Hints:
Layout: E1 5-9, H1 14-25, E2 31-35, H2 40-50, E3 57-60, E4 63-66, H3 68-76, H4 80-84
Parallel strand pairs: 1-2
Antiparallel strand pairs: 1-3, 3-4
Amino acid sequence: MSAKVIVYSKETCPYCVMAKKLLEQKGVKDITEVRIDLLPEERDKMIEKTGRMTVPQIFIGDFHVGGFDDLSALNRNGKLDELLK
Length: 85
């Protein structure tokens, strides 16, 4: 899997942990994690890019997946592997 993956997250977010674990199970070895709890200016960028205030917010390449539920749904529908190529 070679697509660039960015996950906006917070330390205390169980859905962030689950999202990263699912991506790792799919063979993603390089996840760029942007911790909005440590970098408040990145939180503002995340909201501007996604229109959402919750984490995780996941990008695969230029595609905004959404949160963990969205990522999980893509996996169940068999579409996640295609995005990760």
